[in-house]
Amino acid sequence: MALLSHFPEFAAQARQSLGRLPLARFPLAKRSVGENTPLETAPRPLKSRLHEQLVIPTAVEPPEESCRERVQDRGQFLARQERWEELSRLIRSADNRKVATHCGMPHADLLSLGARTDVVLATEHAIADGLTPGLAGIEALEDVLFEFPDEYAIADIVAQTHMDIGWAWRGSNWSHEIPARNLALFEAHFQRATDILESFSRTALASPLLASAQCGLVVAKPKPAMHIADAYERLIDLNPVNTAPMRSLGNFLLPRWFGSYEALELEARRTAARSNNIWGNGGYTWVFLDALRVDQGAARTLDVNFFLDGLHDILYLQPDQHIANLLAAYTGITMSPARTPVEAPDVVRKVRQSIHTMFDHILRENLRELHPLLWAEAELGPAPGTYLPPRGALLRKGRDTALNAIADHFKSDITNGKTLEFGHGGLRLS
């Protein structure tokens, strides 16, 4: 609590420095599209034929997305109603039983995220607008923790709130690019989170929720590279169905953070071996998935055949439309040769082209319906800005992006008058 008194002093100086930095995408929370990002997809040559010759159902409320939203909203509602005992009980129960969505997102994490959403978003928006965030929200959560000092679920909510706010001040730039006061605020919030979670270190050995929080704390250690792999290994082994830690591990093992390309390759293989009974070789793919998206250098150490085998295993072992759309958007949009930077070396182009070839396989063998938000996310890229457009605009953007990508892929068939119809039986050309 004592650290809170220093935050206004830091913030007054840091917000001016932050205004000179490019807005960046922060880990640990969803980010959004900037004001200058176009919301309308550019017209394509085949656009006039899409409605007649490309038939595919659109799931506006896919089960995976609606489940995540429902659980997160429950956490937010209980926090707003100050029903902390009920919220803590729900989180602990979900954590102990490892309750998760169909695609592996833990309910405990979603409940905790919902409970801190109001405080975190208010802080992020204030910082983005060049204002100094108030402390009323975090102080109110600290008061709740004082009332329930032995509830690890409450401790997680408050600690994760501090970490989210710390990231909002720091951003994802290289450390030497960040003003000293911004780093001071980052470190102060993370130190407070460390103090909160310290008394629950033994619980974290069996709790995926607290193990996840411990992974979050690693980034603020003096030498995080010495701890990052071990921390994420514990978390992944506690719940290998959840792919979010695998993707985060790959991102944090990049040289811009706390690792190297060699360490990334090694940990991807180790993760694949430990999670083989769940994902086959897919663990390797999950670890590299986001790393390849944000860093061209990751392609240099990638075992492309291993990665592609992992894609096949994921699609076979988890035949879910959320996964199919996620990977279709990744192979068709993110890894599209058209989106490869012009300055990319040949090895990067070759790797991206190899991954892009899986787009055809997914369309023909796995895709049954569209989940537009996943396509919109792929189209916006890894650093979309600060503010999300309305949900309706994202849905339209995602659907347009998907239809245009599919139409381009089957351009010759559509030009020749064929109709493409996606459904429960797969793709049918007539």
Quick rundown:
The protein is 62% helix and 2% strand.
Commentary on this structure:
- Helix content is 62%, strand content 2%.
- The protein has 22 helices and three strands.
- It has a three-stranded mixed sheet.
- Helix 11 packs across helix 14 (282-294), helix 14 crosses helix 16 and helix 20 crosses helix 21 (391-409).
- The longest helix has 22 residues, at 107-128.
- The model is unreliable at 21-40 (pLDDT under 50).
Main attributes?
single chain, 430 residues, three-stranded mixed sheet, 3 strands, globular
The tally of helices reads 22
User: Which strand order spans the largest sheet, edge to edge or round the barrel?
Assistant: 1-2-3
List SSEs in N-to-C order: HHEHHHHHHHHHHHHHHHHHHHHEE
Helix content range: 55-70%
Distance N to C terminus: 67 Å
Please report which band the strand proportion falls in: under 5%, 5-15%, 15-25%, 25-35%, 35-45% or over 45%: under 5%
Topology:
Layout: H1 7-18, H2 50-53, E1 54-55, H3 63-80, H4 84-97, H5 107-128, H6 136-147, H7 152-170, H8 180-198, H9 208-218, H10 228-238, H11 244-252, H12 261-274, H13 276-279, H14 282-294, H15 298-301, H16 304-317, H17 321-334, H18 346-356, H19 358-365, H20 372-380, H21 391-409, H22 411-415, E2 420-423, E3 426-429
Helix pairs in contact: 1-8, 3-5, 4-5, 5-7, 6-7, 7-8, 7-9, 8-9, 9-10, 10-11, 11-14, 12-14, 14-16, 17-19, 17-20, 20-21
